[in-house]
Amino acid sequence: MPARLFDGASARGRAVTVALEAGSLTIRDHAAGATWVWPVRSLRWRDSPDPAQAVISMRRNDPARLVIDDPALRDALAHHIRRGRRGMVRMRAGWLAAIAIGMVFAAWMLIARLPGLVAPLVPRAMQAEFGLLVEKSILASHRVCTGAPGQAAISALEARLAHAAGIANPVAIVVVDDPVANAFALPGDRIVVLRGLIDTVTDGDELAGVLAHETGHLAHRDPVTAMIRGLGLGAVAHALGMGGAVSTNLGEEMIGLAYSRRVEARADRAGVTYLRQAGLRADGLARFFARLEAKQGSGGLPPFLADHPPLAEREAATAADATGAAPFGPRRWQAIRAMCGR
Fold first, then answer.
1. Residues 236/253, Cβ–Cβ less than 8 Å
2. Concatenated DSSP letters for 47-66?
3. What pTM was computed for the model?
4. Mean pLDDT across the chain, nearest whole number?
5. What's the number of CA atoms in the CB half-sphere (13 Å) around residue 43?
């Protein structure tokens, strides 16, 4: 179809023919033997003093412009340009959606997956130093229970569990005079037991079950993973004197780092396995959960279990027979219960 092309060389423009071909506008100057191809998606409408004319250019600031008088071609171009713009909008929307999905995936990797991938790479010396730092923060406001016979008994039990878990380094265990029924693992193979837990369990089998659970956290590097996720590597570095300031309340912050239900369930299963491998009775953990479930209705649930999997579910998952040796004899068990002088 005929049209006129203005490219700055002639004020009157040159006579050309145009055709829509495969998403492009092909412009041919037969007299000069020249051909131009303008992609439809790049076309721009230009203002025209004559409403019967269509004036288009390939780019917003391109001086070359095409003047089309034919209504049919004008309408066809308008249709293709609108369709091309809709395609561009859809493509941009697709890119934006892909970027949004990528950002969500990156955030999920950063929060959920990356700490677990980084945890094995944290040097043991750094883990040990941070765990000791957190422990000192806790002990700064609590009395350590130092009954030697009880300490020897509970340390010997933990050594058996750590060996069954394949933990090569000694696990340091300390009992703190605090009424809360809790125990928690720290980076650097450390476990803190609060006096309230010893007062809550009915026998050594239940205490052994809880310690086996915490040993499961150590074996799977859960404290290091939680430390990275909750505090961030920057805070860890600051705490170790690598620059900047960090909260002095490290103990409370570390204790407050909750594990996921999946991680807690894994530690439960691991604990039962370690008890069996150590030749100990493995039914204590399930009995402990059963008693806590019975207390739950009366509001007697220890705070540290509030975000854990349902107790009935944990009891069923840790059910075990009563075969195996007791972790302590009567004298050693009494020594543990008397560690804090109560």
1. no
2. --SSTT-EEEESSTT-S-EE
3. 0.63
4. 80
5. 28
